[in-house]
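From the shared-data thread, chain only:
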Amino acid sequence: MTLRTMLTGVAVLSLMSGAALAQDRTVNVYNWSDYIDESVLEDFTKETGIKVVYDVFDSNEVLETKLLAGGTGYDVVVPTGTFLARQIQAGVFSELEKDKLPNLSNMWKDIEDRVEKYDPGNAYSINYMWGSTGIGYNVDKVKAALGEDAPVDSWDLVFKPENIEKLKECGVHMLDAPAEMIPAALNYLGLDPDSKDPSEIEKAGELLKSVRPSIQKFHSSEYINALANGDICVAIGWSGDVLQARDRAAEVDNGVTIEYAIPKEGAQMWFDQMAIPADAPNKAEAHEFLDFIMRPDVMAKASNVVYYANGNKASQEFLNEDVIGDAAIYPDEATVQNLFTTTPYPPKVQRIVTRTWTGVKSGQ
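Structure, as tokens:
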């Protein structure tokens, strides 16, 4: 064998080894269900050669339990701001290497400023999507139950027992999320939605218990199809989920008309953040994934499918008109000013919240 042949063989082996390594690169993503355009994942793999292993969850509590236990194997996770804040304090995330994220320049300063409440300096996360928690309803069924003047723009629709009792027959779902429902009840009672006062949390619990007999189911995301199919008439849910239900019903033209309302008394504004666990096995790939997500065309593609607003200002020129022009997704400034945010409960208060919510769900 000549030296040239030997060197050629070494070069080929080296190239093959490099290709194998490129193929072996992986990023493990753990996101909410129904929350991305799958072509985004395919495009990322095509461009980078990095395989995406994509798993989904349906509640912050499920994600938090895994994060606090450690060793999840995930490289990118998507907690909501209130949960992110206490998870940062618990040391479960790796600080972002911002020099590896040139597309940070595309992000929306107004949203970053609000997120600082949970992630000072935006050191550990980027905003993926944001929205509000309000009321999704079947226009015809609610009118049939409550009349033409049904208070669809108010929490009265679901927090007044005399109203929700009339909606019971057509089906009412409520988010299985105490961090969403207790602040909504506090706000409706004229109390601080971010209250940590145990006596006020108990009052919120009593309000929720008063309407509990009319709640068919507590849920995380299955209300999307239930609304779209006409199986229920009201769901307290996340803005984008309800709008997905609205559009699914319109697509199949099944005679179901769904609308979303941000109640006039105010509603919770939330932020879903992408972060990298401290024990992530593929941090370099995680940063590549985050930077890809922050490309304006990529983030717009995700919003155009899931019907949620995103924290990427540069993406707005790529958004479909039925997304950027929909006030339920991108509310006007006056509506945004009426949205409230909350902060994490201290451990002792969290136990009270958990106990209160268990009582609400069990009706006891």
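Residues 132-267+341-362 form a domain with the D-Maltodextrin-Binding Protein; domain 2 fold (CATH 3.40.190.10).
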